[in-house]
Predict the 3D structure of the following.
Amino acid sequence: MASNRHLGRIIALQTLYEFEFRRDCGDTSVVLSEVLERNLERYQDTVEDKEFVNKLVYGVAEKISELDGTLQPIAPEWPLEQIARIDRTILRQALFELLDLPEVVPPKVAINEAVELAKAFGGDNSSKFINGVLGTAYRTLIEGIPNASTKV
């Protein structure tokens, strides 16, 4: 199931990234459910936990403003609009897992998976940045440690 969830996270990441990119480029015909359906269909013989992928995609899409509002104070030197789109999408997805799926995904697994996604799809420093921001999110939001700073 773990490797299957990794593939599910990749599908969710691709879906959320494509949807945001097309929307921001002015594509008024883009529909999140259609993008997700196409991406799931591509891996229909491999991905088993489609419910997990659906939770990620629709959960992040539904809570995007809330997630962004939580992320910004964690990395105040990095305005969200200046973070690479792929890194921003990975951060949102992982933060959603940390905050909304703790009974499904252990926090350290969510962080590790996000770092792996950043290594695979992000830039040279993406994995370090993602790890730093999510480490701070974990310490401040999950463990309740005040003033846990991001060292990125």
User: Anything to note?
Assistant: The longest helix spans residues 2-24.
